[in-house]
From TrEMBL:
This is Nuclease-related domain-containing protein. It comes from the Bacteria. Residues 37-141 form the NERD domain. It comes from Macrococcus psychrotolerans. Pfam families: NERD.
């Protein structure tokens, strides 16, 4: 079981939503590519181990003698495993403890990269009386990542080795291990002190909502359509689309949301939008100037056939 799963920071959440809507500056563009690649690698690892035994945590940032981040922590049979996920691809050569690509991109000594995080995790666990033997590994998850001249290392794992991890995690979670990872998760810092958000002009952005599953843009609703289907197969109802649009606009605009803006982002008629908004959101202003903000109880569950979706307002 997972005690905690991935929770994007405010910067990551904004950056992933604004991408594709407006031209990013060079810094944000580079950050997006790095962060998105990292997320995809972590998501792949999550999918591989989510149904395995052990007690698991995805995404932990601690402020402990400086900021330190952990991709995955897994407790199993008295061990606390730390997996640092790397999503690189292409051909690399092993030179002076570094992985060097054909384009001369250098992955500096991957072992030393997580040694500091490993030491801090041991110290943090000792401080909070979490008695586990801690082992840290760098996981190069991409099957297209190839290294020549490398004889292997006991703490470096490649894509072909992941089955070994999956097959080893067989012990069911217990209350002690759940409590341990719950304790760690309470110290999680959602936002990094190194991240700063540059807000782009909302009026210049491409309109539309993105698929909750694949994050590609969805087409607008047409006429009396009750739901639309993304190319990935994800179905989105009008009600869900309105909630997604509210979250999206509130995030991008950093302000209240108007009915007309949701119309522009979804293609859904004003009457339908107003019915949904009046039931789930607080309103400000009157008549033409009316807009919506998150209400005090702005979380809701939508039940559609056999699916249950939970949303929380930005």
């Amino acid at each position: 079981m997972f005690v905690k799963t991935y929770e994007p920071s405010s910067y990551v959440k904004y950056l992933f939503e604004v991408q594709g809507r407006i031209t990013l500056d060079d810094f944000d563009e580079a950050q997006y590519k790095r962060l998105y690649s990292g997320y995809i690698g972590e998501k792949q690892f999550y999918e591989r181990i989510k149904n395995c035994g052990g007690t698991k945590l995805w995404d932990l940032r601690l402020n402990y003698h400086g900021e330190v981040q952990y991709d995955f922590l897994v407790i199993h049979h008295g061990y606390l495993f730390h997996f640092d996920i790397k999503n690189f691809s292409g051909h690399y050569a092993f030179i002076d403890n570094n992985f060097v690509s054909e384009q001369n991109y250098v992955i500096k000594d991957p072992i030393s990269q997580f040694k500091g995080a490993h030491i801090k995790l041991k110290q943090f666990c000792m401080k909070h009386n979490l008695d586990y033997k801690i082992l840290s590994y760098a996981v190069f998850i991409n099957p297209d990542f190839i290294v020549t001249g490398f004889n292997g290392h006991s703490h470096i794992i490649f894509h072909k080795d992941i089955d070994r991890i999956v097959n080893a995690l067989i012990k069911p979670p217990n209350d002690v291990d759940i409590s341990a990872l719950t304790t760690l998760s309470k110290f999680h810092k959602k936002d990094s002190k190194h991240e700063r958000i540059y807000y782009y002009p909302f009026q210049d952005m491409k309109k539309g909502i993105k698929c909750p599953s694949c994050k590609n843009f969805l087409r607008s609703f047409q006429n009396k359509e009750r739901r639309i289907i993304c190319e990935c197969g994800r179905r989105v109802s009008k009600q869900e689309a309105v909630h997604i649009a509210f979250d999206t606009i509130a995030l991008l605009k950093q302000s209240h949301v108007k009915t007309s803006e949701i119309v522009d982002f979804t293609g859904i008629g004003k009457t339908t939008i107003k019915k949904i908004m009046s039931k789930n959101y607080a309103s400000i202003g009157k008549t033409c100037g009316k807009a919506y903000i998150a209400s005090e109880h702005a979380s809701f569950i939508l039940k559609e056939k056999h699916d249950e979706y939970t949303y929380k307002i930005v």
